[in-house]
Amino acid sequence: MIPVFAATSSDPGPRLLEARIPGPTLPKLPADIRVDVNMTLVPVTVMDSFGRNVVGLQPDNFRILDGSRQVPIASFGRQDAPVSVGVVYDCSRSMTEKFKTARTAPSELYKRLNSRDESFLITVSNRADLRRKFTSEFGQIESALLFTHPEGVTPLLDGVYLGLSQLKHAHNPRKALIVVSDGGDNNSRYTIREVMSAALESDTEIFVIGLYDDPQTQEEVDGPQLLATLAEKTGGVNFIIRDGNDLRGAMAKIGSTLHNQYVLGYYPPQDATPGKYRKIKVQVMAPPGTPPLQIYARSGYYAPGR
Predict the structure, then answer these.
(1) pLDDT tens track for 132-172
(2) Where are the domains of the chain?
(3) Residues contacting 263, CB < 8 A, separation 6+
(4) Which of 17, 45, 209, 292 has the fewest CB neighbours in a 10 Å radius?
(5) Which helix (H) or strand (E) holds 156?
(6) CA-to-CA distance for 272 and 111, rounded, in angstroms?
(7) Residue 72 phi/psi, 5° resolution?
């Protein structure tokens, strides 16, 4: 079971979204990272038990296992490069009571992005619709949600797949997808296997915000595990929300996380078959006395060609 964080209804504010590990200040990676094409880059999110981003860790605090073998970290840094973020919003009938509050939550995400970032909006209601193409004018996305009215069923996986397809046209190499839903899927053409394959091939982190209260149908019962799988396999964070008011806090944490990640670079083993999927595991060895930490990183990658 993937660990989750429950966001609080109060706006945590930018200063409370970081927890610093004592130690020397890390140099930031340049906006344009130039590495060998055969190097694998793994974005890593580290949080404390309060869901705050942990900064100040050093290369020797991390370990990467490619398959069963530990591999040396060839590059390391904190990444604050531009990011392309897709937002997939469940606007089905079951969201009716929550939507008055939920439609304003993305403003907390966009407060923490900047003009070099870009975003788009997909709504899911009977079908998946691209409501706003890539833009850095985030107010356009907020306005689109304000004039959206929940109705219909939930082809959620179709919405995620459409989001991954849009990210192929991203202007930034860093890509993330945020999925907001109160339940599972009940009308998609695409399967979870097809969606996961597309996500892993595109190196996209999927962040999930699940608004769960009293599930009534089987798809609502299955929804939490479906969304958790999307986050776990791609290195995103799975937020569990019991109150629609807490959605703002979760959006704020995602916005902060996207500009407070570590990036570990390493070379795959020499015997890695190009194009073949390989499992990886990233571990964190925190300094003595550090409270428990939670690490989020994708669980595999497709080996690059030589």
Answers:
(1) 999 999 999 999 999 999 999 999 999 999 999 999 999 99
(2) 1-306
(3) 29, 33, 41, 42, 43, 44, 75, 76, 77, 78, 79
(4) 292
(5) helix 156-166
(6) 41
(7) -70, 145
First vs last C-alpha separation in the chain: 36
- 3-state per-residue secondary structure call for 33-73: CCCCCCCEEEEEEEECCCCCEEECCCHHHEEEEECCEEECC
Residue pair 87/120 in contact (Cβ under 8 Å)? The answer is: yes
Does residue 85 contact residue 178 with C-beta atoms inside 8 Å?
yes
CB contact at 8 A, 164 and 87: no
| Tokens matching residue 50 | 């309060």
Each residue's pLDDT tens digit, 3-60? 444 443 334 443 345 565 554 443 444 434 444 567 888 999 999 988 899 988 999 9
For residue 203, the model assigns a pLDDT of 87
Topology of domain 1-306, per CATH? Answer: Rossmann fold (3.40.50)
Cα–Cα–Cα angle for 179, 180, 183, nearest 5°? 110
Contact status, residue 80 vs residue 169, Cβ threshold 8 Å:
no
Half-sphere exposure of 51 (CA within 13 A, CB side): 22
